[in-house]
């Protein structure tokens, strides 16, 4: 009788032990939902996220709308991730307020949410990872003031007013330029985050304010749109351009002096750290509340310096 009982006990113990092993070995599921999957910026975010998923042995899904205005599709992607019972969501939000309900629904469902790049208006988020957008805007302002002009009339081509990172960048820019007596005017136009809208907006603001001699713009698509507009108008020697982000075309614009400087972020690090923090939170191993990644000013003079090569040319 004793031997039979002992055998039953051993079998039960083994079953619980195997169940525990399966629980421990089960891959953590992380959904990365970004503002767009077509820009070089978010392709680099994916590269970083993918590297982290391999290092931590995670199951990774990567998704985003075709354009950076389609918050409705982002909400649907959030709902799908909740329904799929992922362990964590890494989100770059198109709209600061419209994504709040989806984010808080995920948190209430027990899903860890890490915000990268562009924020949402929720106090329930544990971890945020991004460029310091206000400081990046100040960097753009300092870059304007180093152009060497005696007078600055500045046009700002910004993207959607409901996207947090663009508004923070503009605040930083204005905080610098508004204190300098050489800056006579600051005019803003907001556009959809795509090339055609940015081309038209650039032409519109230059027509309305013909004294503009500098344009500052805040992401990959608007930088390309502004650059194309300057080329089409033949204003390369009339209007300086300070843009954000980098891809093959904007780097070429930097070389040909259509664009004077680019504020370049580190999207690979943003993606990597977003997934890494999602892993730590899912494993209940803590997680940092705020991480800022590095931003640098790239111009024609420093773009080929050894330390800037991987930042400027991350392309396959």
From TrEMBL:
<dbReference type="InterPro" id="IPR028082">
    <property type="entry name" value="Peripla_BP_I"/>
</dbReference>
<dbReference type="GO" id="GO:0030246">
    <property type="term" value="F:carbohydrate binding"/>
</dbReference>
<keyword id="KW-0732">Signal</keyword>
<dbReference type="GO" id="GO:0030313">
    <property type="term" value="C:cell envelope"/>
</dbReference>
<protein>
    <submittedName>
        <fullName>Monosaccharide ABC transporter substrate-binding protein, CUT2 family</fullName>
    </submittedName>
</protein>
<feature type="domain" description="Periplasmic binding protein">
    <location>
        <begin position="30"/>
        <end position="283"/>
    </location>
</feature>
<comment type="similarity">
    <text>Belongs to the bacterial solute-binding protein 2 family.</text>
</comment>
<dbReference type="Pfam" id="PF13407">
    <property type="entry name" value="Peripla_BP_4"/>
</dbReference>
<dbReference type="InterPro" id="IPR025997">
    <property type="entry name" value="SBP_2_dom"/>
</dbReference>
<feature type="signal peptide">
    <location>
        <begin position="1"/>
        <end position="19"/>
    </location>
</feature>
């Amino acid at each position: 009788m004793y031997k039979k009982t002992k055998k039953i006990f051993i079998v039960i113990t083994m079953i619980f032990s195997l169940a525990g092993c399966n629980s421990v070995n089960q891959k953590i599921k992380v959904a990365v939902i970004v503002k767009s999957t077509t820009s070089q910026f978010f392709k680099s975010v994916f590269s970083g996220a993918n590297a982290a998923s391999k290092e931590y042995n995670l199951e990774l899904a990567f998704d985003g709308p075709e354009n950076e205005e389609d918050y409705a599709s982002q909400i649907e992607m959030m709902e799908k991730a909740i329904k799929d019972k992922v362990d964590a969501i890494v989100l770059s939000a198109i709209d600061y307020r419209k994504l709040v309900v989806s984010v808080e629904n995920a948190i209430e469902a027990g899903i860890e949410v890490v915000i990268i790049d562009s924020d949402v208006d929720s106090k329930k988020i544990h971890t945020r990872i991004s460029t310091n957008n206000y400081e990046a805007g100040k960097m753009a302002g300092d870059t304007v003031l180093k152009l060497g002009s005696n007078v600055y009339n500045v046009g700002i081509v910004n993207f959607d007013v409901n996207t947090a990172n663009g508004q923070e960048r503009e605040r930083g820019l204005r905080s610098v330029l508004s204190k300098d007596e050489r800056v006579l005017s600051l005019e803003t136009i907001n556009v959809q985050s795509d090339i055609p809208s940015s081309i038209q907006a650039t032409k519109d603001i230059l027509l309305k304010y013909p004294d503009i001699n500098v344009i500052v713009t805040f992401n990959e698509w608007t930088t390309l749109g502004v650059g194309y507009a300057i080329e089409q108008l033949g204003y390369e020697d009339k209007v300086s351009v300070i843009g954000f982000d980098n891809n093959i075309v904007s780097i070429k614009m930097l070389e040909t002096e259509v664009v004077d400087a680019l504020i370049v972020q580190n999207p690979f690090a943003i993606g990597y750290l977003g997934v890494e923090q999602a892993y730590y939170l899912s494993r209940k191993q803590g997680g940092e509340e705020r991480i800022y990644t590095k931003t640098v000013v790239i111009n024609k003079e420093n773009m080929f310096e050894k330390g800037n090569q991987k930042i400027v040319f991350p392309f396959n």
